[in-house]
Amino acid sequence: MKEPILHANLPLIEVTDPIALDNLYADPRAAQYLLTRLGPTAAVVAPGEIDNLLARMLKLGHTPKVLES
Amino acid sequence: MPRYFDNDLPRVGADKLKPMVKIWGGRYKMSKYDCIDFIVAALKDPARVQAAVTRLEPWERNALALIKRMGGIIQNSALKIGILASGLHPRRTYGCHTALYRLTRESVYRGLEGGTTISDLLDRLQHGSQIELPQNVIVELREWASLRERFTLRRGAHILEFSSASQESDSH
Question: Of A7, B99, B141, B154, which sees the most CB atoms within 10 A?
Answer without folding.
Answer: B154
